[in-house]
Design goal:
By secondary structure, the protein is an alpha+beta fold. The protein is built from eight helices and eleven strands. It is globular.
Length: 269
Amino acid sequence: MAFSTAGLAETKQFMETGFPGVRYICDPDLPTGVYQSGKLVAEHGNRYCLFNAPDTWTKPPSFLPLGYFISRLVAYKVFTTGIPQSSRDIFKKFMMQLIERPDFVKDLFEAIVQDAVLADDQDIDMKGIDSFPDTIKVGEIKANYEQLIQNWESDSNKIDWKIAAIDDNEDLTWAAYHVLSGSGQNIVIFGHTHVPALKRSFLGEPLEDVGDIPLNVPCHLIYANCGTWVDSVPSTYVETQEDTDAGRHYVRVWNYPSKTLRGEAFVEL
């Protein structure tokens, strides 16, 4: 997210040279990319989140979102207080309090600034971030991004901004509906949330967590989230398998390195 367009091209070259066989899928001008195969579609998922989608309006050619600064403010608070806190929890608390306000984005950012015991005239180090000066004041960030909702609504490809705000703090179920609705696909895979998920829908029913359903019951839609791959929590990943003989496309979420199955569902081919 801190790259410019040039950085995307350099990363593509590095990935394809350093990791032969890995398919690097990225749009040429944005840090987004969609993989499609048959009725399966997969992407990172952040472009359906109000505060974490690539921001193409504020500081072009940078696409750094406001969520980047929110995360840094919370990290600063944790560093100075020594009390571990989740940026997701802090964000959710203020979002639920402020989302109906006319100046929601501005008020939310101000609340997080105050929670971190910072002031508008304090500097944030931005060295190495394209399109930004070496330092930027907290108040400048607030002013730069206060039109976020209006900018979001100017893009007809985006989902409703309130849903996108909720997606920032939930599991991207609404984004899964958005992607699958009328697309011809029936399996969607996201990441971004760092929370593994496997949800399925039967015809006309909402997406729900996979539970104790018989393996021989086909689903209408499947949404899977690969979760995270860091040392501090159990790692997870998504596997899909087309069984043409059985006429099934399986989706599985696994734990790593234990290789234990968290959930499985399938759609008919």
